[in-house]
Amino acid sequence: xxxxxxxxxxxxxxxxxxxxxxxxxxxxxxxxxxxxxxxxxxxxxxxxxxxxxxxxxxxxxxxxxxxxxxxxxxxxxxxxxxxxxxxxxxxxxxxxxxxxxxxxxxxxxxxxxxxxxxxxxxxxxxxxxxxxxxxxxxxxxxxxxxxxxxxxxxxxxxxxxxxxxxxxxxxxxxxxxxxxxxxxxxxxxxxxxxxxxxxxxxxxxxxxxxxxxxxxxxxxxxxxxxxxxxxxxxxxxxxxxxxxxxxxxxxxxxxxxxxxxxxxxxxxxxxxxxxxxxxxxxxxxxxxxxxxxxxxxxxxxxxxxxxxxxxxxx
Length: 314
What we know:
Blueprint: H1 3-6, E1 22-27, E2 34-37, H2 38-54, E3 62-66, H3 71-82, E4 86-89, H4 96-105, E5 108-113, E6 126-129, H5 137-140, E7 158-160, E8 176-177, H6 178-192, E9 199-202, H7 209-220, E10 224-228, H8 233-242, E11 247-250, H9 252-260, H10 262-266, E12 275-279, H11 285-294, E13 299-305, E14 311-313
Helix pairs in contact: 2-3, 6-7, 8-9, 9-11
């Protein structure tokens, strides 16, 4: 089922659900890349949705994700929305008291976490561990042969609830509805000319709108994403040639660090890159000029937006 049918943001890539093309290359462990086809990835998202229903969660219930970037993060993100639940992405860099505040503020019924983050979840909140743990993720998922019947949201039903950075006080939950987010992804795909043959890199954290939008738009177009657990400039550059990346994404600081690796860039085939997208902070003229020289065939996209709304592309 795809968004035009269900209107559910969790179905944003379901038009490609039966494809055996690679959807996600997970570099959570760079020494052991994991590749997932659209067929397998879609099935895993459905298995999470089934698991949530069996666990007793209902539409509107909040589902926390406390983890670094990894394919399981995305499975919970899309699976929760298909079940009508609302994923809440938590910044792992926040202090313990702030993590506890967000979990309580959102009234989360369950949290999915990396094993080294699980102990930060308050007692009384079910915690499913992506790796080792008493409540393992692979046991939580319930795969079936039939596609999951996605929740049909109304105009005001919430798709996801990111939190602001808390620069003016405590972080605040932002309510983003299915209707607006599905519309936005369609506009991003159209304006950036994102295609089925594109390969995008995601190394900004998935708890941030920058990476979340990049993932959804790339998968909506039927492209491939290369997912890093965290940003590393040299690994990022190696990935450009290794995976023939066409779409680069990130914040200005990340691009500045990449451009400092001049010797490695000189030794790397960068010819596949056709789009460099950045946002979340101002970019200097010097940075843009240097980037344009290093990637002469690439279009530079600058995005401005806020967590409460979305990006304006220019």
